[in-house]
Amino acid sequence: MHVLITGAAGFIGQLLARELLNDISHTVILADIVRPPIPPGVVHPENAISVEVDLCTSAAEIVRKIALDAVFIFHGIMSSGAEADFELGMRANVDATRILLDELRATWPGVRVIYASSLAVYGRPLPGVVDDTVIPTPESSYGAQKVICETLINDYTRRGFIDGLTLRFPTVSVRPGRPTAAASSFLSGMIREPLHGEECVVPIEDRSFASWLCSPRTLVWNLVHSLTMPLSRLPRHIRQVNLPGICVTVQNMMDALEIVGGREKLDLVKEKEEPALLAILRSWPTRFDNTQATELGYIRDSSFQEAVWDYKESLKTTERIPS
Questions:
Q1: Of 51, 74, 173, 302, which is most buried, counting CB atoms within 10 Å of its CB?
Q2: What pLDDT, on the 0 to 100 scale, is given for residue 318?
Q3: What is the enclosing helix (H) or strand (E) of 246?
Q4: Rounded to an integer, what distance in angstroms lies between the CA atom of residue 188 and that of residue 310?
Q5: Of 265, 245, 282, whose CA–CA distance to 169 is shortest?
């Protein structure tokens, strides 16, 4: 299968590329605004093509390289970054996606497109449990930009331009690397930094604050599943799916850190409320009914502690790289 990954220099793009390049049946184009590295240690590095590209000006450069079977759209500016710079968020999150979709429909009509969306599409008021039928009411520019692109995916699919699928990711934890511009960055940092002997500031002092999370390992499994999942099981004009997650509080995360890393690691977790982030964090739902996703074959984590163990084990074989 010939697969294009945009935003491939980022954490999720690199994880997926690593998985695909360990399978001889895949050829992968890794594209980003900076030239993405080919993940070290993959079994078939010869099947990777790395391209530095600005999608707003040169999308055709990557779309026309080889016949494409599937496209993963991961590029974009994260939540806090999009809120701080509206023009940049619109260009990277909306304009680049629309231009890419137009190039795909002109060159490879009907190609499978898997778009990475976010729970940031939701905002208040929210029901106690969110399912895929709840109407998005984003309270951030990032969430609004994701809704715009979800709508494009649905309409381009309805018209037969592409065969699209939108996956709304839970917050992914534990991410390697350094803190990002995402409002949720601390949800990895409060585990990652202490395990590296560094402090992390949690921007909310309420330890009962809950988040909807999934591990990197589970996310990659679900992304690979999306390559072969029959899209005909979804209406052509409703292609968004909330991926499964688990509800984890700040206290749950601290308990897992203590169990996996030792009690002394808790001394490196500092709590200092940041009002600018609170409105964004409080607007996100924390409990989901993932019936649709599980019926489509997607999986969830069994516990957050398992994700922390996974991250600790990964430190034995990998260097700390940028997110």
A1: 173
A2: 59
A3: strand 246-249
A4: 13
A5: 245
